[in-house]
Design goal:
heterodimer; A: about 250 residues; alpha/beta; Rossmann fold; nine-stranded mixed beta sheet; 9 strands; B: about 250 residues; mainly alpha; MetI-like fold; 2 domains; about 85% helix; globular
């Protein structure tokens, strides 16, 4: 699904004063593309995702989706799995809430869980899974509804360094294979470059788009090889400079 | 660890046994007045006497019946009211100061009004017990509800969940342990409420037995009543703990 963000502005009106979180953000997301958004803490990245997902309203500007009622999924910093449900029931949550939990869809979810290395844990409770496995269940839950747009809000930040690279690479492959239009928010410049078809750099709050880069790294390379390429290093330095510019 | 598990109840039993022995020795030696303090053997004899007369079981049955009815009604009411408050933020804000006020009010002060409203009968006792247990249960359950993980609520909203889906598929199941924990407080408060009620209006029940004992200056009956009360309270608490364990493990 194509998504166009046009001059998005967000001001929070409090009793005493107004707080401008986002000044002006515009960019386009093409069908099947992954956009990474990087910016300093508190620059309004999560606010932007809340606006795109419909949980919050922008003060000004518009978001144009291809579909009138796009199916949007959200994946958070933590897995947000329900401890009283088994893995399959957690993965089917979105389908259930959208009244679309058919036998066919349950079978699809089971196959996805098997495909993503969770075959032996389908009927286990989440407390039996490792951090990386939990994030994979959260990803299956997000993909199960066959979303038009997937929003990832720092989904790997709770993982250790090794798992962070490994799980992000797994997720990248899954998203590319399924051609899911995705917006990823991250603090990690390396993650933004390795995962994104485009990297949107935001300024400090109230945020504007400072730069949009196209890493153009070979999708077939492993994340470690991507990180060792010259292109990656040059772009990393450039984004680092953007983020530290006043 | 295993040794500790066995050792702690043994130490508990030893403390009780030492306490009873000291009490009995002091009574036999006439260091303490048995007319005022009774003694373990006199309490035992009174209990046997009450049991043989058939009265004790009847009193226990009456108190237990009142406790079970008040406990069930209080828990049910607290659950329903908590759901209503959670579903209606405005109502919750309006009700909140009243809940705080009622919670700090000693319920026994309402006794005379309750007797006038409900009559000098079992209804008054049950009403008194419900008033004693329901407020704190509402506060506990409602606070559990409003502290449900915000991220999970956000997840449900992204999936376009309705308010009732959020309530029944997230808020209530996430708070099962809070609800079950409130039962532990609830059972103790219900017993307090029932005994207060029985002291005020009853002609049957352990509360009445204690009151009767004090009125005829028979401290053996009072102490026997208290002893039975401790046993009932202990068993009920353990039953709720068992229920707690079963629900949480499921």
């Amino acid at each position: 699904m194509n998504v166009i963000l046009n001059n998005i502005k967000k001001i929070y009106n409090n009793q005493n004063d107004n707080f401008e979180a986002i000044k002006n953000i515009s960019f386009n997301l093409l069908d099947g593309e992954i956009i990474s958004i990087v910016g300093k803490s508190g620059c309004g990245k999560s606010t932007l995702l809340n606006i795109i997902s419909g949980l919050d309203k922008q003060t000004r500007g518009e978001i144009i989706f291809d579909n009138k009622n796009p199916k949007i999924s959200y994946m958070f910093q933590t897995d947000a799995l329900l401890p009283y449900r088994n893995v399959l029931d957690n993965a089917c949550l979105g389908l259930e809430l959208m009244n679309n939990k058919t036998n066919d869809n349950i079978d699809k979810v089971k196959n996805m869980l098997k495909e993503y290395g969770l075959k032996d844990f389908i009927y286990s409770k989440p407390n039996k899974l490792s951090g990386g496995m939990k994030q994979r269940v959260a990803l299956v839950r997000s993909l199960a509804i066959n979303p038009d747009l997937l929003l990832l809000d720092e989904p790997f930040s709770a993982l250790d360094y090794y798992n962070r690279i490994k799980v992000s690479e797994d997720v990248f492959k899954i998203l590319k294979n399924n051609k899911v239009s995705t917006i990823l928010i991250t603090h990690d410049i390396a993650e933004a470059i390795t995962m994104g078809d485009k990297v949107v750099v935001l300024s400090s709050s109230p945020s504007i788009v400072k730069n949009i880069y196209k890493p153009n790294l070979d999708d077939n390379l492993s994340f470690i090889d991507k990180r060792n390429s010259q292109k990656f290093n040059d772009l990393y330095k450039q984004i680092w400079r953007d983020l530290n510019e006043k | 660890m295993k040794n500790k598990k066995i050792l702690i109840p043994i130490i508990d039993l030893l403390i009780v046994a030492i306490f009873l022995i000291i009490w009995e020795v002091l009574s036999q030696a006439k260091i303490i007045n048995t007319f005022i303090f009774s003694s373990p053997i006199r309490i035992y004899k009174t209990l046997i006497d009450l049991l043989l007369n058939g009265n004790l079981l009847m009193h226990i049955f009456v108190t237990l019946k009142e406790v079970i009815i008040s406990f069930a009604l209080g828990t049910f009411l607290a659950f329903i009211i908590s759901i209503l408050l959670y579903s209606n933020k405005l109502l919750a804000k309006i009700i909140d100061p009243f809940l705080t006020m009622l919670n700090s009010l000693p319920k026994v002060a309402l006794g005379p009004i309750i007797i006038i409203w409900a009559g000098a009968n079992t209804n008054s006792i049950i009403l008194m017990a419900i008033l004693t247990n329901v407020i704190i249960s509402i506060i506990t359950i409602y606070h559990g509800f409003i502290n449900t993980d915000k991220l999970k609520i956000k997840l449900f909203k992204v999936f376009k969940a309705s308010k009732s889906q959020i309530l029944y598929k997230l808020v209530i199941p996430s708070n099962i342990s809070t609800i079950v924990n409130s039962l532990k407080i609830n059972i103790s408060l219900t017993l307090i409420g029932v005994i207060m009620g029985e002291l005020l209006v009853s002609k049957k029940g352990i509360g009445y037995l204690i009151l009767y004992g004090s009125q005829v200056f028979n401290l053996d009956i009072v102490m026997a009543g208290l002893f039975v009360l401790i046993i009932i309270s202990f068993i009920l608490y353990k039953l709720v703990l068992l229920l707690n364990k079963k629900i949480v493990s499921n």
